[in-house]
Amino acid sequence: MRWYAHRPRRLGHSVLAVAFVLFLFGIAPGPARSAPDASAARQATVVVAVPVNFPPWVIPDQAGGVTGILNDLWTLWGERTGTSVKLLPLPFDQLQEAVASGQADIGDALIRTPAREARFDFSSPHFETQVMLYFGQELSGIVDAATARGFVVGVAQGDACGEKLAAQGDTLKRYPTHEAMIAAAVRGDIRLFCAQQQVADYFLNRLRKTDAFRHSPSLYVARAHWVVRKGNEALYRQVSEGFDKISAQERDAIDKRWHGTRIEPSALPIYLRYAGYILLALGIGGALLAVWNRSLRQQVTAKTAELERMLANLVCAQKSLDETNAALRQTLNQTVGALTSAMAHRDLSTAGHERRITELAVAIGRELGFDEHRLEGLGIAAMIHDVGQIQVPAEILTRPRRLSPEEFNLVKMHAEAGRDILRDIQFPWPIAEIVFQHHENVDGTGYPRGLVGDQILPEAKIIRVADSVEAMLSHRPFRRAASIDSVIAQLNAGRGQQYDADVVNACIRLIERDWQWLARPAGAGEKHLAHA
């Protein structure tokens, strides 16, 4: 089950979706759909939120989909019930919010806690695992939460282990996924982390670091359940009845497939087995050599002709693909530009604001070493970062004075509104999340979520600085434009508070090399910045 398509196709979808937003510009959004009634008919399609990269239950595959125990189990459930199932892999905290908000119908692999019981109806447990503390070989004496006190313990965001350790007074460092947490432990960023045994064993083996870590005795047995929103009795009954149609033998077969089957020892002595392997290998090798000697010339001739045909076809296909991608990118850039132009007409006092921010943001990204693909995504996000302002009354945006607290609170909603407009557009970059975060401060004082430090995407940190610099240098009816020296002073004052220090350093380097392009009209500095 895939959750994103091949990149060229995603780019085409992005163009169509952004164009559709432009077509709908100025039309008030319709009322939100109410949550389904518990007495509604059986659902023909369900969205199941599952933990992201949670082996062996959820494992991403190379094709961009997911495999694992839960994929097989929900696929079988869908076949038995005639229901279409879509898996939605998310970090644990987002998984819970997706079910609570209605983005997903069902959540899986959740541990029962009092706080969660207030929000969800839980099934009976359908798998369990041991939860342990893992620590480096240099440590000893870690047997439970009490003996871990005084250390910083890594936990996955939203994992029940974090709730249990926090309740016992342990100091925690939260990571978005188990994979990110274990990678941090391998790098030495943390010395202890809490994880399910199978999950930790999988990632430590994949990183070839099993010899570098030990684990404590089991802290507790984590019994996992599927859940639905509190009170959704009809869906709960539909899911339960579907699982009743799956036998214990079928469940065991799925578990055995992903946990593996124990290798039974052979009854033959080991030297006889090795002798048999050697004789078998010699016999097969001799037969293959005889066939190979007889047919090699014919095969080489045929393969050479086939490869020449394939090469010619690939050259033609690559040329066609390059032309299609170039046309799609041009259309996407034109559509984004048209959307930005339409936004500017709502507030003529800020005309050119998005393009100046885009030029400065791309220059900062290039100064920080972003590759061209990432710079392209940064430029698009900067160009439409204020798209959510289409839901803010025009008379507030154009008011020639400072806004009242109530008016400013309305304006602050544009970040979330922008995310909602863009969230379903399949860009090759996380555009919706960048737009959602572009008013976050690294010290947690920003909005809308108060994110801190590395929780904020680098692109959002860059747009935060570029937006501020452009605002400082722009004349407004209620204040004058700041001088270059004042801009640099304000950036240094906000370093590590509002602004990321690396982004501030890169921006100041650009200004000190040649600040005069900042005073040019929008677009005039684009060629200069491309080589800054």
UniProtKB/TrEMBL annotation:
Stored InterPro entries: HD/PDEase_dom, HD_GYP_dom, Solute-binding_3/MltF_N
Keywords carried by this UniProt record: Membrane, Transmembrane, Transmembrane helix
Residues annotated as domain HD-GYP: 328-523
Transmembrane segments: 271-292
SUPFAM superfamilies according to UniProt: HD-domain/PDEase-like, Periplasmic binding protein-like II
Pfam families reported in the protein's UniProt record: HD_5, SBP_bac_3
Protein name, UniProt field: Transporter substrate-binding domain-containing protein
